[in-house]
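Please, structure for the following, as tokens.
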Amino acid sequence: MQKIFTTGQWVMAVALCLMTAGPLHARINMVALPDRGKTLIRLDNPLATLIEEERILTLQKGVNSVDFSWEGVRIDTDSIRLAVVSHRDQVRLLNVSYPPAEQALVWELHADAAAEVRVRIAYLLAGIDRLTAYKGVADKKERRLHLKEFFVLRNFSGEDFAAADLLMGDAEALSQRIQHEETRQRILSDRTAVPITKVWTFDARTLPWDPEQQDTNVGIPVRYHIPNTAAAGLGARALPAGKVRLFQDDGHGGTIFLGEDRSPVVPRGEMMKVRLGDSRDIVVTQRKMQERRINVRRNKKNRVILYDTDEILEAKLENFKDEPARLTVLEEIPGQWDMADCSHEYTRRSASIVEFEIELPARGREKLVMHYHRRNVR
């Protein structure tokens, strides 16, 4: 007689077959196991959620058939694994079979003696995931940030968890109850006085060189740079990817919404860069002042096959704010090149990208001049 289990509930039972030939085994009635014991939900992989749970099996001496059913629960069938935790030298897993047209499997375990055996069952479960959200409130002068990290757990797997330990990468384990179709949110960390730097970024590859020639106002992207370091009150672990909402203290007991962005994973020691929007307080106007061919090489037919260039680029950087501003300038020099002279120190971020970090004084301006040669241009 087939036992019918309730939808969405784990059921395990133990039965022993009475053989007509060979060794004689005692008979066990099929019974439902008690609730799961220690349960671990691993959320460190964004593509799959690993569940590890412990159960107590009451085994009789001989061969025991353990039925495992998951009707209505979104389990990856091929991922289910059984490991014997206690009595390892007395219990052996013989085989596993999958009944046709059922969301179930049957393990056969051989016990050398009757015992209550602790086993660990692991499987991949779809429909349960985590989100990370951040809320930051900057002070009036935009020097410090009150940063809260929220953990959001969503369960649409078809399974209820009365109690489970949640593991999320290198973060500390959290104890949580989560029912099917339930969403839970809690504060994972709360840090005050996190130092921030407001940075404007002009990227010559994407922004117009002469804003005055545009039909609309040109804004330069502005971001908060938040260091994930111990000195900043963070840095204990990598910061997970998530949505970041930023506000600013208005000085009158309220806050002003600055903007929101999505942050990728920020490793320890790296910088979280959150875009607030575009600012028109900083204006960059740049022009190519010189571009001429030098060291021209020709073939036997007097056709130009290779040449170098001698180029000069000038950029006027203006700050219309009443406070100093940090401006990052990204310039692209394609191909093989060398710098003949430059007005400011730079960092070569890649083969073709040059980065400048320039401090603009309040209501001030700077001139950036690059004199460089491109080599072996075809």
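Residues 11-125 form one domain. The chain is about 0% helix and 60% strand.
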